[in-house]
Automatic annotation (TrEMBL):
<dbReference type="InterPro" id="IPR036291">
    <property type="entry name" value="NAD(P)-bd_dom_sf"/>
</dbReference>
<dbReference type="InterPro" id="IPR013149">
    <property type="entry name" value="ADH-like_C"/>
</dbReference>
<dbReference type="InterPro" id="IPR013154">
    <property type="entry name" value="ADH-like_N"/>
</dbReference>
<dbReference type="GO" id="GO:0016651">
    <property type="term" value="F:oxidoreductase activity, acting on NAD(P)H"/>
</dbReference>
<dbReference type="InterPro" id="IPR011032">
    <property type="entry name" value="GroES-like_sf"/>
</dbReference>
<feature type="domain" description="Enoyl reductase (ER)">
    <location>
        <begin position="15"/>
        <end position="317"/>
    </location>
</feature>
<dbReference type="Pfam" id="PF00107">
    <property type="entry name" value="ADH_zinc_N"/>
</dbReference>
<protein>
    <submittedName>
        <fullName>Zinc-binding dehydrogenase</fullName>
    </submittedName>
</protein>
<dbReference type="Pfam" id="PF08240">
    <property type="entry name" value="ADH_N"/>
</dbReference>
<dbReference type="InterPro" id="IPR020843">
    <property type="entry name" value="ER"/>
</dbReference>
<dbReference type="InterPro" id="IPR047122">
    <property type="entry name" value="Trans-enoyl_RdTase-like"/>
</dbReference>
């Protein structure tokens, strides 16, 4: 087994990424070691580097969405074998992150990759999908292996063309929402409707126009962007005007979700058991991909592209290049 492997390392808080080597862990128990063939960029990656949040020790390794091939398995693994193509989500433990050639995974929290989707498309699913599993199902009694019933409910998803937004639309469809509205650039309208959106508003549409499209007040808004403008729009849409002209009394429940699978195993284990089936059957459509060349050395370029902003695609690097 490989004793060392290359990784994109953050040597210090708010430092600059560099390619170096680190020890390759040995899988134990129900762990597996995955040869990472594709890793996706999340906006959280460059925000973590800039702010220094979440990382307590250095050098650090980021990357929270990955796909690859199982290279070795622990002695208690029974449902996966060497050579299986899998999808996985990274954690805050650096042995489990995706910006490196090899990563550990918990085999209860991975899925076999369907043959009808390539690794570049697979890698970006876990972070966004785990987040939506928690957002939509955390407050319910039944895990996502049992299809919920949200008929006659309306959900508004702000930022539908983003990676998070695209999966929010699809999970809302799976959850049975009768009306799925979203905001996005108008160029993405038909694509987002193909994912399940029933209404697509231009991202610059004001709250009054959006509100007027529905016969009753909106009860649920999902902010896939989390910028000041989208948060204020969500608050405005969810607010109920008071009888007094010019005055508003607003009571809004805001739920923050830490979207890592290992934090809520009651939901995430059944989610991972269903993920491959959903993708293979076409119920979940992966994001469209923009490949960034350079392998691990290309991670800084990929993060810079993410910072500048991309629309309707997910940035991907290949650690083995």
């Amino acid at each position: 087994m490989t004793q060392q492997h290359k990784a994109s390392l953050l040597p210090q808080k708010q430092g600059k990424l560099e390619v170096s080597t680190r020890l390759t862990p040995t899988p134990r128990g129900t762990q597996a070691l995955v040869k990472v063939t594709a890793a996706a960029v999340n906006p959280a990656d460059w925000k973590i580097i800039e702010t220094g949040l979440f990382l307590e020790t250095y050098p650090a390794v980021l990357g929270y969405d990955g796909a690859g091939i199982i290279h070795a398995v622990g002695p208690e693994v029974t449902n996966f074998k060497v050579g299986d193509r899998v999808i996985f989500q990274g954690t805050l433990d650096y042995d489990y992150t995706a910006y490196q050639e090899y990563a550990l995974v918990d085999t209860e929290l991975i899925a076999k990759a369907p043959s009808n989707v390539n690794d570049d498309q697979h890698q970006h699913s876990p972070q966004a999908l785990s987040l939506h599993t928690l957002v939509y199902f955390r407050k319910q009694e039944s895990p996502p292996r049992e299809r919920p019933n949200c008929q006659r409910q309306v959900v508004l998803i702000l930022g539908g063309s983003s990676s998070v937004g695209q999966f929010a639309i699809q999970f809302a469809r799976i959850a049975g929402f009768s009306t799925i509205a979203t905001t996005a650039s108008s160029q993405h309208t038909e694509f987002l409707k193909s994912l399940g959106a029933t209404h697509v508003f231009d991202r610059d549409t004001d709250a009054t126009t959006i509100r007027s499209a529905f016969p009753s007040p909106l009860g649920l808004a999902f902010d896939a962007i989390s910028a000041n403008a989208t948060q204020l729009l969500a608050f405005d849409l969810l607010a109920n005007p008071s009888p007094v002209s010019g005055a508003h009394l607003t009571i809004i429940a805001v739920h923050n979700v830490f979207g890592f699978s290992d934090k809520f195993r009651d939901l995430s284990v059944p989610f991972w058991q269903k993920l491959g089936e959903w993708i293979e059957g076409g119920e979940l459509v992966p994001n469209r991909v923009q490949l960034v060349n350079g392998g691990l050395a290309g991670v800084p370029d990929a993060l810079e592209l993410s910072r500048k902003g991309v629309s309707g695609v997910k940035l991907v690097i290949r650690p083995q290049e």
